[in-house]
Amino acid sequence: MLLAPVIYNLDAIAGQWKFKQMCTKEGGPKFYAPVEKDVGWQVEGHDQEDMALPFVLGSVAFVRFQDKQDQWHDVRVDGWVGANQRKFVFSPVAPDHPVRYKYRKFWERMADERFSKFHLQVVDLSNDHIVASYTKISYAWTKPERVLLAAPTDTSCWNQQGDFDQFFKHIFDLGSK
């Protein structure tokens, strides 16, 4: 009778072990090659948030962005509007200003539906190689219907010891991982 809770939660215990292993091995920032400063970037998303993300890295010359109406723009930062918001200037695409990197983000579903991965990747368009990435691994240790009041059981290895912040801070340092 004392083993009933352990047996009932055995899949959760095994899942937690797998989650910790995945976080250690695959989670967090990875730098594979140097990232050049002050060049053009492209984003895959069509939202203003997607367009603004590369500018968080600093040292980005411009971002080539396709809006929801399928119009392409070269976007630059021109100062600040208020304390925390950048002022963006949209201009037509300048063909003589090539983009060097593509910034993409996407979710990956795992075979075990309790796991998922969120990826941020920087791809060098000159050779189509990933030069930097950040991976967040999420895990729901059990189904909500098995928990009192369907409480959420999700956890993730997101920004462990500030590594997400380090990804943005060190993106232009020589690749090491």
Structure summarized in a few sentences:
This protein is an alpha+beta fold and 177 residues long. It has 4 helices and 9 strands; from the N terminus they run ααββαβββββββα. Helix content is 21%, strand content 39%.
Give an overview in words:
The structure is a single chain. This protein is an alpha+beta fold and 177 residues long. The chain contains four helices and nine strands; from the N terminus they run ααββαβββββββα. The protein has helices at 4-8, 10-26, 48-56, 163-169, and strands at 28-31, 39-43, 60-66, 72-81, 85-91, 99-109, 115-124, 129-140, 154-156. The protein starts with a helix and ends in an 8-residue tail after the last helix. The mean pLDDT is 82.
Describe how the helices and strands are arranged:
Blueprint: H1 4-8, H2 10-26, E1 28-31, E2 39-43, H3 48-56, E3 60-66, E4 72-81, E5 85-91, E6 99-109, E7 115-124, E8 129-140, E9 154-156, H4 163-169
Parallel strand pairs: 2-3, 2-6
Antiparallel strand pairs: 1-8, 3-4, 4-5, 6-7, 7-8, 8-9
Q: Rg from C-alpha positions?
A: 20 Å
Question: Number of DSSP strands?
Answer: 9
**What is the rounded distance between the termini?**
48 Å
Round the mean pLDDT to the nearest integer and report it.
Answer: 82
Fraction of residues in helices? 10-25%
Main sheet properties: 9 strands, mixed
N-to-C order of helices and strands: HHEEHEEEEEEEH
What is the helix tally? 4
pLDDT < 50 stretches = none
Work out the strand percent. 35-45%
Principal-axis shape = elongated
Tell me the structural class. alpha+beta
